[in-house]
Structures
1.
Amino acid sequence: MSPAWTTGVRAGLRRGWIELKQNFTNADSLVPTLFMIGAFLLVMVLTRSATVPGTHFSLGTTMLPSVLGMSIGVNGLATVGGLLTAEREDGTLLRAKATPNGMTGYLVGKVVSVSGIVLAGVAGTLITGALLFRGLTLSQPGTWVTLAWVLLLGLLATLPLGAVLGSLMPSARSAGLLTIGIGGIAAVSGIFYPITHLPHWLQWVGQAFPLYWLGLGMRSSLLPGSMAAVEIGHSWRHLATFAVLSGWSIAGLLLAPLLLRRMARRESGSSVAARREKAMMRPV
Amino acid sequence: MRYGDRDVLRGVTFTARPGEVVTLLGPNGAGKTTTIEILEGFRMRSAGQVSVLGTDPAHGGEAWRARIGVVLQSWRDHAKWQVRELLAHLGSYYAPYSTADIRRPWDTDELIDTVGLTEQAGQKVRRLSGGQRRRLDVAIGIVGRPELLFLDEPTAGFDPEARRDFHDLVHRLADREATTILLTTHDLDEAERLADRILILAGGLIIADGSADELSRQMATLAEVRWSRDGQRFVHAADDATAFVRGLFRQYGESVEDLEVRRASLEDTYMAMVREHEAPRARLRVAV
């Protein structure tokens, strides 16, 4: 480990912190986040008195951990992917490339700022949810242990994967498709309604992606043990959750450096200028 | 250097000395940007040898990168950052590459003052005007006190005052910091004012290499002599303007008025060179 390399990491930590502060002091980045959290909480409140089929447990309360899981996954995938394409288009990435150890700094910064956004979102939702809903197992130490490892593994599974997706997107515009695709996956991941009520083949599709496992992991940490009965196999399946999320982590961590390097290699002043011209010609 | 089977750079050979300002001129599509991007290490070449600060830019590491400055045209990157915050952050990457001779990075406030952004230091980048943004681009390019600085059309869109300030800055960097500067421009006036040496690139070849004076001498373009006599105006294009004027006075003496001798400008030289170079190629294209 050379001192110069650590400069990149340290600069990246500072960069992430600055970007995180910007995110929470800028109305245009804060308002959509708060709006999303507010909308989900509203849906949970409205479905509070409905029960999960086959139980007497509130559907709204069940939805809270599922939405927490989803927000980790969606931020990891869509936010990282979207930022990467947008910042490739606007030249941020080229500036990083023109700076010694700049790419290291850029990536570390992204990991820090997006993780920070996820953590703040999880904390905010959880605190509001704890005040609004009953039945969450907040006082058990096991809750927080499970929450911590699912959260960390979830970030590890989705951040590099988001970078992979972002580096494959040809333009910031096509990154919009990414968000739609992730929304589609969320729909079959048992976030808003138990996955067991979906057709069998869709259950398999949902289980192939990390979002389902993030939701399951969060439910397992925050809901009473008896609620495992409505899950696939009537179990929280911790081992499978760990295995699938680890699998996606390894795949992402192997692919991301290759694809990011390929993407960075193609960046130059003229490629940024060409994209700027193209973007400016598009009707807004 | 080639794209597909089309060679875009064929005979580009030049060296730059420390502290020298070299200007790359040429029509659009001549290969200026390609040349500069190869030297910056942002583009791989298909053949040939390149050495920038003693290293092949295709394999330049981070320590090499720290000695190079690139002025990029910003668009909307780092929009939420404050000017001082961004410069201090980007400067921090250069600190481990500081040497006894070159203290890296540039002190943030001093740098902001140097490019004339002191009043905007606390502003967000997205609030800057176009001209201020370009000054910030220059500041980012030199924050690591580069030994070699690349500027690709740095003054496009500058107003005359900003252009004058920028020229002063380039002179200061070259003279005081001994920075070697390679810049491209379409502004021949700017090239003449800044460059120690001018390279003219056309059709992927360097067709001229020298100071503005040397180039006009090399082209032996005609000087223009204007004068008036008995209220009538005359214009003559002369090979040897001095001899012509001597003859003029010998013949007409006191009655010669309003004498004006205009040597071929860099623009005349440039146009003549590019035209001469492109003429045979145009014919070739017809034959194909």
2.
Amino acid sequence: MKYGKLGALGAAAVLVLSACSGSATTPPAASSGSGASSAPVSSAPASSGGAVTPGAWCVGGTVKIGTELPMSGGETANGVPTENGVELLVAEVNAAGGVAGCKLATNVQDDALNGVHDPQTGAKNMQTLVADASVIGVVGPFNSGVAEAEIPISNGAGLLMCSPANTANAVTQPPDGDQYRSAHPDKISYIRTATPDSIQGPSAADYLYKDLGKTSVYIIDDTETFGVGVGDSFEAEFKKLGGTVVKRDSAPKSTTDYTPLFTAAAAMNPQGVYLAGTTPTGMGLALKQGRTVSGMETIPFVGPDGVADLGPGGTQGATITIAGAAAANVYGTVGAAHDLASGSTFVADYTAKFGGAPGAYSAAAFACAQIIVSSLTKAAATATDLASAREGVRANAVNSTNTFDTALGTLSFDKYGDNTKPFISFYKTDMTLNGGKGDWTFVKQESFTDPNAP
Amino acid sequence: MTVNLPRFARPLGIGAVALIVEYLLLGTQQFANALTLGAIYALIALGYTMVYGIVELINFAHGDVFMVGSFLAMWIMTTIFGLTGPVTNLLNLVGLLAIVMLATMVGMGLIGMFIERVAYRPLRHAPRLAPLITAIGVSFILQNIIATAFGPSPVNFPQIVPADKFALMGGKIAYLNLFIVIMAVVLMIALQLFVGRTRLGRAMRSTAQDREAAELMGVDINQTIAITFFIAAALAGAGGMVQGLYAGSIKFDLGFFVGLKAFTAAVLGGIGNTTGAAIGGFVIAFVEVYATVIGYTQWSEVAVFTVLILVLVFRPSGLLGQQLGERA
């Protein structure tokens, strides 16, 4: 197919273009106090007024936290509020004098290609971040498929990644996880605060079966790492509970018409639908078109965090914006705690700085940045140059005996880099909110135990 | 005016047999879905086949012309008419659909003529590969213009046709599906009449057969080719509008996959043959929906191209293509 090849060639050209435009470094504007009343990190040094002289590792007085998230197009509702969480912490730390006298900045990378997250773009961004010697740790990525492309690079270079949102089991757990860190199996470079899909999928199945009382379901996935993984674990649990999976379909993101799929599924009278995937990779359109099929108009649709983006109707790229009225009676799980650590002023600070409610993973990104800052604080004592500071951050963050006080509470990570205190929060849509444009409302949160905890 | 029966009988026969087989395989509901999808593919495939027939150019920008058509229709509806939701008054609805469709088709026709004038006409006597590459360039230009103007995320298309359905032979059919199929059939019949019965149509056919001889007989070649591009882009515009109404949201890269399938439909039907393109569009849609029905959605594209390969192995010039060697 001539066109296919040439199309790919053109896509590569676009990739280069968008990567150029996405690699701009944006130093945070707020260097002076922006109303940061709370102590940003409990382990931050008690510096008063930034009188501390930074060590030799702090070249030029500033080090950077990299962010690697999908920031544009259909992913705006995912990436931008998450990145804001990092910017908030950086501003607060700088207002308190920096880390051991060293100011923080960010190196912002966007892995959205043509408005949808893209693993190749992510890999390229990770190489950019590795090459920027002043980056001492990275917050991101957002999507598990992107993480799979990036972890081998960060592992080879010994640069810490902390993902606020990745949930696929394969990212950390054997056998796939071992392959991604095969360059340095003993020096893992990746941790995540989000709850793995081995918990997220089953908890959605429990919710649909027990709380909503539905005994049959239709599952459609987007063929990606995350979608297939969460769909599989949902399916296994739903069957274990005694429910019936009437049909399971896989539709790639290039699908332009979901009507035949839902027509075929509706003939089997499912009582619910599980959208295993993300809104930008087709689940938004699947929801919108699926609702028009007879028998699908009012049954509950349940989705993982790729669908439950918590973006109110009207936000660019948000599920409720795309689906419109079809977003009524939609439920979603998010792999993070809804209730933050007691005493955290995160929500108030975020709203004051950015003028809107945080996104689903803003607090987790803030926590990731807190972990990087806390690790840097420990590493600062012995670091002699940027390379040893970077290695010190990695070693402290992945050490399973360390604990971190963050906005999400006290966190620690197991030998694979998974959060030892996983949470799932449940949300549903309410189309009467937000002036009739709809929004997500919190239902409940549940805590689980990490099977790999030390 | 006599109708050449044998010439019409074969495509009609193939079409009728294909429809009956597909109805039996799919059942009413999925048959309606496939027919709707096929109507959209057919409208685009006609443009590929007409342009190829007259200038032997595979116009790879045509899928993106279709995409631009859906954005133009969306812009007309939201910005000029301020439409956001269903229009319940039947008379208003029909009037609005007619006006929006006419405006979209004329607007897209002019855009099609413009593209031909600036991108293809200067290269008409260049080696064949040159206009092909230009077409791919135009495709990217159109995509990037739309992505810049409307953003790369999906854009909502106003659902002005109410989602009501009527019962028919054990299925529930939305009025929108009915509208799309009827509209596509009307446009296709109008095209056949235009090409077969009018002076301009005769000029198009003669240009396709032998450009130089037609020129010697007094046919204005530039005008004829421009009109061909106008009609092709207008049909794609109509297709873009109904795609928006049907899917409810449109995206700047929509034209790539839909265009690829419509191109396949044109080749399947016999490129250069308008009836073949229409039948090809429906065949592709049926194969795709059938793959979904039997549970192989992931393989639907494989199925589509397998059918294409099989047809080309046994009939290298497509279902209705004439075996005329190099030149059709």
